[in-house]
Amino acid sequence: MEQLLHHLKNLGFTDLEAKVMVELAQGGAASGYEVSKRTGASRSNVYAALQRLAGQGFLRVGEGEPARYSMLPVEELTRIISGRLQESLETVERKMPRQEHEQAPFHNLEGDRDVMTSLARELGGAKHEIVVDVRREEVALVLDMLEQAEQRGVKVLWACDSGEAALGQWLPRGAFETEPIPGGRKFSFVVDRRWCMLGMRGDSGAAQAVVTEHPVMTELLLNQFAQDIVLYEMENDMGAELSVRYGWRYENIIGKYVSGGPRSI
């Protein structure tokens, strides 16, 4: 009973209105005086509640004196409530003022606990795709979450700097390795092409990250990942033939943009 009253109040009915509705549904049609006796509420308050409910179409009012009130069938009641709620939600979505040029915010996270809490929440709610770029030192922190996502049918694409493939879609990290960032190891995650995290974690274990749903950051991380995949596939397919075919030009192109030159193939 208390749970039912609680949910009726959540739908916008007052405490007395909820009690009156349950009493009429339970005991059948009744006059205001009878409802007052059953609920223990004052007659004036009960009459006011009955009139409000009848005026909103939630009660039927019989002819005669005194008037007798009865509840609608529950299916009809819930259909009316659902329709009105949906209409209100659509109106709010359509009419609520929006800020012009509203942009997704960037949030800074400090420390392993905050970073992992945020990451676990998003990976646990992923529905379609997760793109991951991590170093092998961080693999153990996320492996269980990625495996669970795959078991739910989420496509997981992830890259690591070296080691055995932990998941089916594993790729070596990047087609060309850059110099490590002083003081830490970079990691990034993109979930459902919407939410992304870019951060760094040091040997001490302390992590720092930026989290956002800004489409520019998401696009940058996805483009970087796609570029690495394409370059890796080219090297994997052509092998040493790249250097044979392009000679010094290939090495010069890579050396111009990537510190340390091309990875050995």
TrEMBL record:
Domain Transcription regulator TrmB N-terminal: 8-75
Gene3D superfamilies on file: Winged helix-like DNA-binding domain superfamily/Winged helix DNA-binding domain
Listed name of the protein: TrmB family transcriptional regulator
Pfam families: TrmB
Origin: domain of life: Bacteria
PANTHER family per record: HTH-TYPE TRANSCRIPTIONAL REGULATOR TRMBL2
Species for this entry: Paenibacillus enshidis
